[in-house]
């Protein structure tokens, strides 16, 4: 009896512990699921186009799998229909440019390698049954070595890497298959046709169903990066002379996001590579000056580098004289505004306003700072150690101003190359300038007529003079 | 007669112009060929492993194409042998880690998706002939949407992107093929087997024929980047107060290569991702702390950012007093030496020398600079504008010193995590320190016993005090 009770107790305890273990497992699984769910929602929310892209892939795949469902289509292509499915899975990329690039690479490489493979097969089969496999093996080996090596050439790697891969693949398959199947020409034709069908399905779905343009993404990336720097510089003006405790939330949110700008080189270059494959769309023509965007992006990164160093002087607890504080604040907030104006000009594809008000303000501030530093105002700061951080900030700010000027120049160039539309004010000022030019009997090309360019040259020279005055 | 002569003249002139055109074409083709040849030689010379890699791809491809050459092998696998060739072409990558990662991804994804695809096929076929294609279509669509979306999760994208692609591909092919072929299980088995054979051929050739280890490349990249910064800082000490004309070749070669350091983020991360797949090899164990390399690389990039700003003050034509020039020169060349010592420690996998001589020198130099700046030595420079650039350089140098300290700390951590071997001197100093610890009856963990760590803490605190004295 006692034995039985004890046995029951044991059973119950095993059951309970099993239940607890299962409950724990379920709870952990639930937590994990919730976390995955949260992450998934975040990914979809950050960029809803990702969800649309997934649906588009599903759509394209379902379309090409119709080959298998309908008897007449299947009768035509047979097992080769498989290649259409493979092509869709492998070629369909997030942006139109990437999809087009991969599709064209795959199509052309399949065609070229197929033709060469057939040639190699005929050549080898003419030499007799013994030599054939040896010759084919040699061809495949040499072709693989040469093509793999060509993939290392930087230009090929950037644009035709996938094509080279498909070239090796197709050449090997076609020339080796020749050893075994007699209907090799028909096979190659079918394969090429199904690949073309798969690739064009991808391209059509990619372009006509909520297209994602790499060019547009690059355009936005460049504008956003400049805007981030602008936000930082505006924020810096306010925060520079606060102590850490003064600023309520520590670093204000505008000061974050610098590192994403610094690390944007690869993504900008990838997008530019894709954008080159894209046809004209929206405000972008076919040969939009994508390279100029890379130039602006590179200048922006340089500027971000300076600004990161400036960032180290935040909350430095320096008690600078009120006048200097004022000038430094106004300089950094003006360069912030100038940057944001440039970002807006890119984003809206309008010519940056001529005689940029903020750049003029920057000039005034720079001159003021120089005259103040020259005056005997500083004499009372006998201990130089108190002066150094302020001098450094001033010097770095002057550097940053030069960077802002460079970016403005590159944006002006872009606005000319890409025919940005003129804003109302700009058109008026251009008219005046054109009249002046006509009076001078000195016709200028676009970049010289452009009012902004004039201002830029003025601005730059004067700032540079101030800069040289600083002895830097 | 005249007609005939004119006709002949015309023929000759056509022949001549045709010949000239052909000659021009040939000449241009020759020039182009020469250029390609030069570029090819450069690519092979820059990294001879590229040539070896191409030969390895040829070898692996020839090995798997044996399937087609030998009747018994072909009888076993039939057309499925194609998948071995495809796998080799697609999976074989430059480094062992990348090849292993892709091979494992491909193998596991094919297995999982094949099994699921078979399941889907059975489930669908149980519902009858009419529902089957609809259900299969639905499965394929849902699976493609879900898998494509999962590819956007950053962790998945970094390590399992290729696996997800193969998952979509295999699931679609297996479940759709089920509609048409009856021997679907046999087909799936054969395909899996040939893919495994192809992938293992790649892995074996990749590991046993002149292996290229991504981990080793990462190791070298990180060490080289630190060395580049070290070279720059050494050069900066010499060049800083020269005018542009003084320095014979403009910027000396040591000052170049900064931008490659700044842009190395992506390549370092890619290499670290590959390295995680690699088995232990040479001095690297299986779970080598690759993440720590990324930390060092990130600190190196921060330091490079400061140094790029410093670079703007080269040849600034400032006439700093001799004493200050001397201290600044010695500070930058000492930090250069300290960086190069750290690079050497990583490259040779020895613990960085304890009580780093150059870091001690840096401390002395920093103290000297501070006391000099504090003295009334500067009073004679009534015009502050002459002082500013020097003050900025001094301030930036102090920043750089902090960066060097941070890098030294991270390298120390790495040397502990990865069990770097001790240098002779180091072992002696460790013994002394251990004795001290035993006397204190206060046993420390590795990082505290380490002599370098002690020095680092001393060094850092004292430099930081000096830094705070500077008011920065």
UniProtKB/TrEMBL annotation, chains A, B:
<feature type="transmembrane region" description="Helical">
    <location>
        <begin position="160"/>
        <end position="180"/>
    </location>
</feature>
<keyword id="KW-0406">Ion transport</keyword>
<protein>
    <recommendedName>
        <fullName>Aluminum-activated malate transporter</fullName>
    </recommendedName>
</protein>
<dbReference type="GO" id="GO:0015743">
    <property type="term" value="P:malate transport"/>
</dbReference>
<keyword id="KW-0407">Ion channel</keyword>
<keyword id="KW-0813">Transport</keyword>
<feature type="transmembrane region" description="Helical">
    <location>
        <begin position="12"/>
        <end position="31"/>
    </location>
</feature>
<keyword id="KW-1133">Transmembrane helix</keyword>
<keyword id="KW-0472">Membrane</keyword>
<feature type="transmembrane region" description="Helical">
    <location>
        <begin position="77"/>
        <end position="96"/>
    </location>
</feature>
<dbReference type="GO" id="GO:0016020">
    <property type="term" value="C:membrane"/>
</dbReference>
<dbReference type="GO" id="GO:0034220">
    <property type="term" value="P:monoatomic ion transmembrane transport"/>
</dbReference>
<feature type="transmembrane region" description="Helical">
    <location>
        <begin position="192"/>
        <end position="214"/>
    </location>
</feature>
<keyword id="KW-0812">Transmembrane</keyword>
<dbReference type="Pfam" id="PF11744">
    <property type="entry name" value="ALMT"/>
</dbReference>
<feature type="transmembrane region" description="Helical">
    <location>
        <begin position="134"/>
        <end position="153"/>
    </location>
</feature>
<feature type="transmembrane region" description="Helical">
    <location>
        <begin position="51"/>
        <end position="71"/>
    </location>
</feature>
<dbReference type="InterPro" id="IPR020966">
    <property type="entry name" value="ALMT"/>
</dbReference>
<comment type="similarity">
    <text>Belongs to the aromatic acid exporter (TC 2.A.85) family.</text>
</comment>
<feature type="transmembrane region" description="Helical">
    <location>
        <begin position="108"/>
        <end position="128"/>
    </location>
</feature>
């Amino acid at each position: 009896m006692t034995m039985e009770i004890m046995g029951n107790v044991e059973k119950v305890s095993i059951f309970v512990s099993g239940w607890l273990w299962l409950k724990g497992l379920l709870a952990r699984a639930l937590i994990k699921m919730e976390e995955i769910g949260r992450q998934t929602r975040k990914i979809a929310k950050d960029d809803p186009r990702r969800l649309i892209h997934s649906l588009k892939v599903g759509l394209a795949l379902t379309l090409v799998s119709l080959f298998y469902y309908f008897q007449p289509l299947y009768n035509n292509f047979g097992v080769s229909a498989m290649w259409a499915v493979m092509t869709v899975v492998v070629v369909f990329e997030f942006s139109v440019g990437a999809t087009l690039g991969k599709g064209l690479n795959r199509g052309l490489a399949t065609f070229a390698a197929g033709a060469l493979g057939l040639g190699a097969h005929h050549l080898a089969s003419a030499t007799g049954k013994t030599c054939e496999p040896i010759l084919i093996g040699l061809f495949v080996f040499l072709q693989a070595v040469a093509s793999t090596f060509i993939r290392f050439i930087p230009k090929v790697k950037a644009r035709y890497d996938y094509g080279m891969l498909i070239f090796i693949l197709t050449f090997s398959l076609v020339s080796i298959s020749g050893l075994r199947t007699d209907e090799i020409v028909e096979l190659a034709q079918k394969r090429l046709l199904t690949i073309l069908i798969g690739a064009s399905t991808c391209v059509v779905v990619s372009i006509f169903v909520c297209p994602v343009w790499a060019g547009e993404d690059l355009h936005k990336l460049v504008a956003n990066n400049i805007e981030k720097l602008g936000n930082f510089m505006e924020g810096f003006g306010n925060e520079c002379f606060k102590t850490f405790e003064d600023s309520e939330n520590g670093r204000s949110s505008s000061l974050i996001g610098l590192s994403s700008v610094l690390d944007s080189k690869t993504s900008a270059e990838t997008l530019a590579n894709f954008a080159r494959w894209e046809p004209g769309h929206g405000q972008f023509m076919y040969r939009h000056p994508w390279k100029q965007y890379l130039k602006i992006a590179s200048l922006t990164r340089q500027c971000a580098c300076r600004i990161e160093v400036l960032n180290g002087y935040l909350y430095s607890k320096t008690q600078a004289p009120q006048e200097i504080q004022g000038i430094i604040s106004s300089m950094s907030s003006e360069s912030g505004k100038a940057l944001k104006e440039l970002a807006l000009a890119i984003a809206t594809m309008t010519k940056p306003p001529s005689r940029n008000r903020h750049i003029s303000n920057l000039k005034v501030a720079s001159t003021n700072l120089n005259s103040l530093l020259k005056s005997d105002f500083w004499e009372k700061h006998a201990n130089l150690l108190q002066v150094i951080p302020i001098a450094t900030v001033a010097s770095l700010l002057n550097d940053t101003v030069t960077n802002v000027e460079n970016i403005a120049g590159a944006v002006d160039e872009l606005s000319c190359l890409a025919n940005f539309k003129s804003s109302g004010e700009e058109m008026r000022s251009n008219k005046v300038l054109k009249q002046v030019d006509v009076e001078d009997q000195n016709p200028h090309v676009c970049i010289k007529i452009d009012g902004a360019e004039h201002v830029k040259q003025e601005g730059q020279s004067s700032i540079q003079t101030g800069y040289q005055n600083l002895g830097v």
